[in-house]
Design a protein that fits this description.
By secondary structure, this protein is of the alpha/beta class. It has a single domain, classed as Alpha-Beta Barrel (TIM Barrel). It is built from seven helices and nine strands. The strands form two sheets. The protein has a six-stranded parallel beta sheet. A three-stranded parallel beta sheet has the order 1-2-4, with no helix packed on it. Strand 7, helix 4 and strand 8 form a beta-alpha-beta unit. It is globular, with a radius of gyration of 16 Å. The model has no long low-confidence stretch (mean pLDDT 93). The structure holds fe (ii) ion. The site of fe (ii) ion has 5 residues, from loops.
Length: 229
């Protein structure tokens, strides 16, 4: 255990210039980095959107790498950024050639977001298939979806990432508490898009609100971040 120290990893962020709509310019990304730094966040996993019906794995990786190199060409004092993806779940996603290249780089962790329309039982089967092959499936901002859908999908072994801002919504309190008590929440993210100046202050406050549960989040996030390259 880490003793509830306060140094969370931002597990979900859209901070690479031009990699997706989260940041359309280097200027925006540097502003995001500056806000993270000012709030004490020095480890960020960049998770641009991957839409299987729009992108090929190779074109996505090419765009992500170019965006990362552009950001790193800036010799400012930046937080440490590691590379991942937020992959949109669709039927059969586990059979997408090269899907493993979309895991958080250097790990067996896959950040999956659910579609907002029609939940399908096949999504559970995809998760089950990943989990059985040793992949850690993390559901991005699980609190945004109907609870019954998330409860169904976690039966198949998925864990949960929540967006920090949701810790401040009264309507989410009950379900977040339930997930925390079952140790299902293993990561928090800012899910920052653009120069939302509230994103990192909310992130910091949310981490504090996790209280004793911050250990669970830190233990998982620290381990994953340390594996990443
Ligand atoms: Fe996101």
């Amino acid at each position: 255990m880490t003793g509830s120290r306060f140094a969370p990893v931002d597990f979900h962020a859209h901070i690479l210039p031009g990699a997706d709509h989260g940041s359309t310019s280097l200027e925006t990304s540097l502003c995001q980095m500056k806000m993270a730094r000012e709030n004490g966040i020095d480890r960020i996993i960049a998770t641009p959107h991957f839409y299987p019906t729009v992108h090929s794995v190779e074109s996505f990786l090419d765009r992500r790498n170019r965006a990362y190199e552009l950001l790193m060409s800036e010799h400012s004092d930046l937080p440490t950024v590691r590379l991942g993806a937020e992959v949109l779940l669709c039927n059969g996603i586990e059979r997408l050639p090269g899907i493993e290249k979309l895991f958080l780089r250097g790990t067996n962790v896959l950040l999956l977001e659910l579609p907002y329309s029609d939940f399908q039982i096949e999504y559970c089967y995809s998760v089950e298939s990943f989990v059985k092959s040793g992949v850690d499936v993390i559901l991005a901002h699980a609190e945004r979806y109907p609870t019954e859908n998330i409860e169904q999908i976690i039966e198949y072994g998925a864990k949960i990432q929540i967006n920090a801002v949701s810790m401040h919504y009264f309507s989410k309190r009950r379900i977040l508490r339930s997930w925390l008590e079952r140790n299902l929440i293993v990561a928090i993210g800012s899910d920052i898009h653009g120069t939302d100046r509230h994103a990192y202050p909310y992130f910091v406050k949310a981490a504090r609100k996790l209280g004793a549960h911050l250990d669970t989040v830190n233990d998982f996030s620290d381990k994953v971040f340390a594996q990443m390259n």
